[in-house]
TrEMBL record:
Enzyme class at the top of the EC tree: ligase
EC numbers for this chain: 6.1.1.18
Protein name: Glutamine--tRNA ligase
Name of the gene this protein is made from: glnS
Residue positions of motif 'HIGH' region: 42-52
Amino acid sequence: VIAEPSNFLRQIIDHDLASGAYQQRTDRNGQAIPSIITRFPPEPNGYLHIGHAKSICLNFGLANDYKQQAGGARCNMRLDDTNPVKEDVEYADSILDAVQWLGFDWGTHLYHASDYFDQLYAFAQALIENGKAYVDSQSADEIHANRGNFGQVGKNSPHRERTPAENLTLFRGMQDGRYQDGEHVLRLKIDMAHPNIVMRDPVVYRIRHTEHHRTGSKWCIYPLYDFTHCISDALENVSHSICTLEFENNRPLYDWIISALQELGIFKTPVPHQYEFARLNLTYTITSKRKLLQLVEEKRVDGWDDPRMPTIVGIRRRGYTPESIRLFCERIGVSKADSWIDMSTLDQALRDDLESKAPRATAVLKPLKLVIQNFDVLACEPCSAPCHPQHPEWGNREFQFTRDLWIEADDFMQDPVKGFFRLFPPVGDQPGGRVRLRHGFVIECTGYELDANGHVTQVNATYFPDSKSGTPGSNNYKVKGNIHWISAAEAIPTEVRLYDHLFNDPHPDSGDKHFLEAINLNSKQTITAYLEPCMKEAKAGERFQFERHGYFIADQLDSASGKPVFNRTVGLKDSWK
Ligand code: ATP
Ligand code: MG
Ligand code: MG
């Protein structure tokens, strides 16, 4: 695993370690625990996306790095599953799978916030007994209206002065199922005039007569995020609770709850502290689970794992490697200031990862027939190319040179523009374009044929028999163009999907336009390409560099034995203009 570069969080951790307060920590049972504990706490209400990858690499990356140091470190995997309405095991499973695929290991430290329901309920009662929480019976709308706006104070609830005994009875009645959804809520008694609206008696429990995917029908009250999160952190002895900037306003509440429970002797120092970092915003895509869900539900993409989706399952299927995602996260770093990261940064990380790893292969994506007129129709000349130029030990690919070949349509121009060094017809006493057919022969264009609509149907050429690559004669030919080709006799017609960005707007998620209006309706193009013979054996999940085109993966789901289907992951050059 690649080490994270230095960032402000490391400085905080280094400072905390140097203070000595985190040495020889023990949990509530007196068991030794690492000095540094981080956690990754997604809510299982959707599939993880590339933004989550940043948080995963950060939290698990810090733990991996500080593991080496005195006191040690670890990262807990926690499913923050306290809202039964939107959560599902399908999502929980996919989250764990995504973290593992990215290369991180939580060992035995997998937790569920729902495992803390008993403790959360006990702590809520302790706060009630100490006058720090009360049951409110206003409607949701009244609570919202009475909270007040910024610059204006809120209004106390008429139920705010209920006695602890009354509150306890009501709260237990809520859990005993005596009330309907929305009849009562539990609120912390903080300050309705607090300048930070988050602190105006936040709601921490509400009634929801809904089955939970793990606790079934045991509970009909569920704790809210602000209450659950800090307590889960404290119960797990998290030292550094790292979240995105939108939770900055919630930090005083995090600290308030922890210190209220500390005063009751429930938690001891060092208690967890929350630190915020800037979320990942990536151009031409969106990183919001809710909006991604909308794309899936409205069938604007082919599911969560559509290769155009920024979900981990999507980018995985598209062909990105775990190493490239970690490299990307390392390169973008971690800061406290929001910014946009260019999609090309992600693509470059993939190219840098695969350049030395991906075997090379030939694919003609837009085929045009090339006929070598001085080559016998029945003849064939064996040719070969290294599977990877830097890995001779990987061996060679073998293929045939024949009279009829496929080349890229773009490698021929009837009227060549200035600086076009590939194939073009002779004009007057000017000879036709000369190119080397990679790993084959040098040829010279002698003409072309058109159909009734004026489309080029065939290019004609002659070859130079002494110019074969790897033979001494090949040195006598100096040509500027170097193009790929496949014998028509052995080309494998193969489905290839070419993907483009999912949105036309670099910032589809911000600004006044609705993100759905920015959808690129031409983001997926399915073609039949011609592949060199050995590609028939490509296995689902194998990655290749198709020479001159880019990196491709044999699709995990749609490839069959002897019949791969390819997705283009990225081109060789940046096309995110
Ligand atoms: P979304 O906003 O997409 O619904 P979320 O923030 O609700 O996502 P959680 O499941 O609560 O998703 O997130 C788990 C962790 O991942 C949190 O710590 C959250 O801050 C972090 N995270 C979510 N989105 C991003 C992002 N774009 N960049 C960095 N971290 C993120
Ligand atoms: Mg969330
Ligand atoms: Mg969010």
